[in-house]
User: What shape does this take?
Amino acid sequence: MKRVGVFVCHCGRNISATVDIEKVLREISKHPGVAHCEDYKYMCSDPGQIMIREKLKENNLDSIVVASCSPLLHEVTFRRAVQEAGLNPYLLEMANIREQCSWIHTDTDDATEKAIEIIKATVEKAKYNDALVPAKIPVNPRALVLGGGIAGIQAALDIANSGYEVVLVERTPSVGGHMAQLSETFPTLDCSQCILTPKMVDIGHQEKVKLYTYAELEEVSGSVGNFRVKIRRKASYVDNVKCNGCADCEPACPVLMENEFDAHMSQRKAIYRPFPQAVPNVYTIDKRGTPPCRVACPAGVNVQGYVALASQGKFKEALALEREENPFASVCGRVCTHLCESECKRGEFGDAVSIRTIKRFIADHEEQLPEHELPESKKNKIAIIGSGPSGLSCAYVLAKQGYKPTVFESLPVIGGMLVAGIPEFRLPRERLKQDIDYIKSWGVDIETDRKIDDPEGLLKEGFDAVYISSGAHIERKLSVDGEDLKGVFYGIDFLRRVNLGEKLEIGARVSVIGGGNSAIDAARTALRSGAEEVTIVYRRSLKEMPADKDEIEEAIKEKIKIRFLATPTAFICGNGALKEMRCIKMKLGLPDDSGRRRPEPIPGSEFTIPVDTVVVTIGQSPDTSYLPKDTKLKTSKWGSFVVDDVTKQTSVPGIFAGGDAVRGPDTVIWAIADGKEAAVSIDRFIRGSDMNENRTKPQAVERIILPRIIKDNTRQQARTLSAEERAGNFEEVNRGLSEEQVKAEALRCFSCGGCIECRECEKACGQDAIKFEKQDEVVEEEVGAIVVATGYELYPIDKIREYGAGKYEDVIDGLQFERLLSASGPTQGEIRRPSDKKVPKRIAFICCVGSRDPEHHLPYCSKICCMYNTKHALLYKERVPDGEAIIFSIDIRTAGKDYEEFFMRAKEDENVVYIRGKPSRVLKEGDGLVVWTTDTLTGRPLKVKCDMVVLSMAVVPSVETFELAKKLRIQTNIHGFFNEAHPKLRPVESLVPGFFLAGCAQAPKDIPETVAQASAAASKALEMFSKKELTAEPMVVAIDEEMCSGCKLCVVTCPYEAREFDEEKNIVRINEALCMGCGSCVAACPSGASQQKNLVEKQMAKMVEVILGE
Amino acid sequence: MASKKNVVVQINPEIREALLEMGAVDAYKCYQCGKCASVCPWFQVGTYEFLVFRFPLETVLGLIASSEEKEELAKEVDKIYRCVGCEACVEQCPLGVKIPDILRSARRILVDFGSYPETLKSVVQKIRNVGNPLGEPRENRGDWAKDLNVNAYSSDMELLYFPCCVPAYDARIQKVAKSTALILQKSGISFGILGDKESCCGEAIRRAGAENVFTETARSNIKVFEEAGVRQVLVSSPHCYVTFKNEYPDLGARFESLHTTQYLWQLIDAGRIRPDKEFKKKVVYHDPCTLGRQSGIYEEPRNILKSIPGLELLEVEEFSRNLSVCCGAGSGGLWIDWPVGERMADIRIKQLVDTGAEVIVVACPYCLQMFEETVKSMNLDIPVMDVTEILCEALGE
Assistant: This one.
């Protein structure tokens, strides 16, 4: 049996005042295995340690228990003491009778009893301790620094200057962090950039620093001394070596985006450099993804692209970009149902961008067709049936690839429904001709008056593929009495005849039945063809009406009446001609399959309307009756062609179909989309490749960055002809927007997707540095230590509604004011307020916004705001000497060297006014603002008028901190600031070895403190590097190979990936270098094979037994 | 020699302890930022200086209601009864200090000593004697329902309708109770009333400091409800709503409290009633403090109004929802007549009228009564209505 020595410490009176030491000694010496027992006043003192060493040898002890304070405090001390006396240090145990006993109890008897139990239990543990030998771990003397702000820069430089390599990872395209955004720094008013840029340049030039900007940490594995990290280098689409920062690309880029560096106070281009002194001094393309408008467009038109080009007056380029996906710019600029506008993010804040009118303008702006080189021609022949939008789109896409498509049209005119169905006052024929001519210019042959009755026959005639886009021309009937009377027309037939120039007999009173665009077109056409009174009769209500809202409005302007919730039941003849129409009133029931409420007749509610002409426009269906009897082309019961959803191929290989011939009556843009899809399939069919591959639509970009203040929420209005101007003619009613209007309208775009790939920058770059094919790249690095310096951001200003933030332009945050002060800022350092660029004559600075507000926001003090407010006030007074700066605060905290003096200077020299009181509201008054508050010192309620308000928003960890903490597996507090190992004594180390903290990622702090902490973190890393190898904690887990069943439960439980599975032996092995001794696996192991050294099950059981008195 | 008043005073721990015991528990939290004082409706009234932020520290120092001189004390009593309990300060306070609770504790002391406003004394007496603050006979409490064929409550019914004293007795405001009954009848909900068996919920007098009378009244109501087997109480007043919901359970109550706007919106939403008749007016909705800020019910009354065809709903920009301004009737304010020029309702009515509304809509009998009187005193020609009254019209009743 082991000979255990027990040494009981009085800790001055800390222990002995509550615990009866005498009694403890008496009891413990009786405990089995205790060979020696002694007390001392201060066991941790030198004499105490000497005593332990002497008694150890004297009594031949082979295990020691020191009963004193927490092992966190003195375990190291006593282990060292016994080691010097030749005992393995892991044979020493501490019994904590201070923190866990004397300090928390007052009753001596109870405390003594508890102390005895604690010591006895520890003796039991000590008896079974093994002598352990710590393993040595080699240290990779290379550091990773996360974050390129001043903290990261300082830490990286300190480490590199000591001769060790550093990998510096920065999320944005340049190092510099927030400090680069600041104007001057308190309390010395040094120019922030002037003192920072030399350090940034150093970072760029230091050979030992490997800089990854526009990069993010992806994954960390390994442990202290030997980490492996994966870093994602985001594609910047610019070659950093070739780019010389000349800025030629910048003016070429048409895309305006929010400028983060100016804290959203200005805009930048999609290709940008955050600021002129950026390190590295290169450009980055901000490509975020596919904008929602483009995703919404069935034809996938680069909507944001041509809108952006139009905003810069690049109408020719805009049109070219539009035509990459859709040849019908002029047509769609007029009659498209603009699904893009429904998804436009702008629409959430008022009117969507008027995309269609922009498109129309760029098409109309074209004076002559562009010249283009024709592609090398392919020999394959393709037949297209029908020259509507679907057929021509298909032909266009194929022709651009060098195919020679032939379009067969049964009518004498080209355009299908575009010419036959849509009246001239909506789509002038010369505009349609523009699009058709453009398509023809690619080498598309169109044969009019050629009706094809046997599509399959075309394949036999030598065509390699056929696309059927023959439309939908069979009119749907009402099936009521008198439908065949003279004077009853059908919509499409009616429109076609009028549109193709036939003079129809139209009476004075016309009723149009239906609620779609064709019904509106028919009504307006009737009005222009001599009708005196036109009424649309529709069976549902306005809400369900499928026609375009603009068109309905135009019809109403033209005095066309709409009779809702009614439907005809019979047409009645009088004197051989149509005389009246009997109708029944309807009511809306439950929603049908289309989601619209189903109309139901109200019994007994019949009424009659006198009419001379009726146009029934309730829809059409495709005509496939012409097909030969033995056709293999499958059709549906509605007469439409059956095709594959994705490829558009019919039941006959090589024959494709789309548009209204498949869909029934639908919109132009869907017809175009089908034609394009079919063209893709036809090309693949001919080449013999997979028609289904890669045909999914892209997802819309999710993270859309909105402007600071969302304004201009109404769209530009196009001029339309007055009712008089329209009367009796087919002049185009909508006259579109002016050039200025188009540019202004296009500037309303939020640029959701960022870069639009218009490649204007590529043309402008003289260095061949633009590389659109670039992709994200993941690089691996090995390091021994990681410095986390990921910084802060400001609490979002729009969370403070009572101060008008996010609503009033002149309510800004502290960083935004820094940008106003900065010579490189949006006003070149002149203090001008955002709304009207006036120089504000009184500015209210409000402290503690979001901070010190546990009820609504954050409980902590953000530490830097009192001082930067004072600095702001001072700098403002310097720039605007007749201005007044008022600071509203709860307290002014000036703890720092020369800080109080700085505060007094603001008061005495610059007459900054400090009001002690937290404002409750900021309201608009005239063109200024008014702050409601109370001065708590004079007790006077105040309404303070001012021109601008600056809110000192709370400091919060940067947005990615929570994600990062998970990846690094280090702790944060509930606000996301990284936790230090000890608030007093280990302020720059994380609890997890190998991680060091610097700057605001740990807590809000100012620049001097940040730099000091960064240097401290660096020196801690250097301390580690200087050791060459580290001693591993030996109290790791060991596996009893006999007992391990290879269930692998522990493998998934281990948070440190310290386990490997031995396939051969079917057991788990421990990587002792990675094991942190957390014990999770011990709890998880069902067989008890996982045991932590010197904390094995037997020891635990013995301890419990003693405590329970068994 | 007439002694001068001593302006240098001592900390008074006795008053402090008394106040803390009466519920001023938040006093130590406050850091005197003063935000409450400019959130307070008195700030908007602008003619009475009400430095709310001083109460917590005055509590800690034991200086509230500490004057021994009669005239000084009268001024203090006036000050302590200026708070209308709208809780705008509580909602905006960074630390969540419940100033109205601090003032209630002061009022409890004043009530114990009988040093509180005479009009309130009479209200407390009336509630104690006849169960309502108007002093109307108890037996007439159910008279509003006489012509409506409303049954006495029995435990097989879905709801007990508890109209609040003002709709039960006040000739104008009875229309709120009647409208509610008509809507319930139209929707086929089984409900009943308790008439003369029930008493005032006691909210206002509790906030005025009459804790004992409140407890007596509340206990009697709880007993009556329990004996009748009540599970759900529908109330017209947000004041009854919060009291039943938050305060009665402490006295052993076990029933659910529902405000009419909540319940009626549920009926509309579920399609059980459909307002078809047009109400073609621009209306502005005033958020009652007790329904909005104190109960978080902002959407339901608006949803009801939005479901009415033809109705155009307006908002008081900057001062709606949680930033709504009190009518001044809370915490006993209904019965205290402040001088002209010192009335919150005047300020609020101006804000409401300035929206261009043709009708002012409320969802609280106190607000309704206060605004009706104010509109008259300001010689304005604008109707004030309860949400239930408009809904009842839109249902064609």
The mean pLDDT of chain A is 94.
